[in-house]
Amino acid sequence: MRTRYIKLEEVKGPLIVLDGVSDVAYDEIVDIEVKGQGHKKGKVVQIDGQKVIIQVFEGTSGISLDNCSVSFTGKPMDIPLSKNILGRIFNGIAEPIDGAGEIYSSKRYNINGRPMNPVARRYPRNYIQTGISAIDGLTTLIRGQKLPIFSEDGLPHNQLAVQIINQASISSEEGDDFAIVFAAMGIKHDEADFFRVNFEKSGVLERVVMYINLADDPIVERIITPRCALTAAEYLALEEGMHVLVVMTDMTSYCEALREMSSAREEVPSRKGYPGYMYSDLASLYERAGMLKDSKGSITQIPILTMPNDDITHPVPDLTGYITEGQIVLDRNLFQRGIYPPINVLPSLSRLMKDGIGAEYTREDHGDVANQLFSAYSHVQEVRALAQVIGEDELSDIDKRYMEFGRRFEQTFVRQGFDENRDIITTLDLMWELLSILPKGELTRIDPVLIDKYYRG
């Protein structure tokens, strides 16, 4: 029989404190019965001798020192999972909110996941096609990779997330084994409706699992949401053998919740008030991406975060960049010029790109033509700076070609309609069309055999 504790020591923000407690474990789930309000869930977050601090998932509203009783379940938080989660919508703590009933399964899974043995990991290979040229051509998303999107306040990262989810695909012979897990943290009600309505319209909802934490939900749920989503992804990938793409937005909201919880627990703050353990906490989420040798499935992550004050050195993007394998950077200047998606390709990169493209996966010219395009667009920035000093009319003929290349690159390659889905061959052909603006002598990073085969000048 479980012991129930009938008096609290303290209630502080989203936390309650109990004293005189024994046989309790860190991360253990707690059942809190509040008189007249029913039951709430909590989690043990700190143990100091016989004193225990508990996070209350639904918040401590209505809880006083003597109107509730607490019992410990003896296990961490777990959720029921089956393949029936596809097409379903859950709240931040994996409770169904779509009116389609509970998920019934004989198996329950710990939301903290199962760490992947580094020796058992497979190196990421092959790619996921997003249908967006700036990503597929220049920062290719590789299966098993974690590739974040760095955005800024007011930029269309939500639209980009929807477009990626609507268009993402893998090779046709494996298409039936592809699923998407979408986790939203701290979003507004209209944003939640935007995601749901667009997924329903495009017909992809049946292969998507949604976990939604709203801005007015308790912040403790925000810390649970990505863990529930990643647990679902691990189940689909490792037990059902599916290739799973996990899109998480907004990781900055998650980190703000982490900071608020740390402050409530009176922990010593680190950079900009964030807890010193934020790096390891983020790593515990991001490192759940990957592939295992004994499983045909894969987990690929696209975390989306907004950079406070447009500062890429802020702790959230800074630590994320250390853990992940590249980044896709959205640019305010491109957005103000009406270019969607406003992806700045120069600071963007995919560190695993070279291992999932080429003759075996995309086309034999992909690596060379991507390198040349980066080089040419980088030179465009130098030419533009020169043109501001001496005027465009005074540029040399070759520099004028680079100016034309830069304009066409941004207007026809980076710019793309919200509903425009380009396959990888279309993207590569468009890259050659752009490079053909330049003379052959400028294409120093491409094998001459490939130039003879694809150059259109």
UniProtKB/TrEMBL annotation:
ATPase F1/V1/A1 complex alpha/beta subunit nucleotide-binding domain span: 131-350
PROSITE patterns, A to Z: ATPASE_ALPHA_BETA
GO BP term (any one): proton motive force-driven plasma membrane ATP synthesis
Pfam families in the cross-refs: ATP-synt_ab, ATP-synt_ab_N, ATP-synt_VA_C
GO molecular function terms listed in the Swiss-Prot or TrEMBL record: ATP binding; proton-transporting ATP synthase activity, rotational mechanism; proton-transporting ATPase activity, rotational mechanism
Stretches assigned to the ATPase F1/V1/A1 complex alpha/beta subunit N-terminal domain: 10-74
Domain ATP synthase A/B type C-terminal, first and last residues per copy: 355-455
UniProt superkingdom: Bacteria
UniProt keyword ATP-binding present: no
Entry keyword set: ATP synthesis, Hydrogen ion transport, Ion transport, Transport
Statement: the UniProt record of this protein carries the keyword Methyltransferase: no
Family in the record: Belongs to the ATPase alpha/beta chains family.
Functional note: Produces ATP from ADP in the presence of a proton gradient across the membrane. The V-type beta chain is a regulatory subunit.
HAMAP family linked to this entry: ATP_synth_B_arch
Protein name: V-type ATP synthase beta chain
Gene: atpB
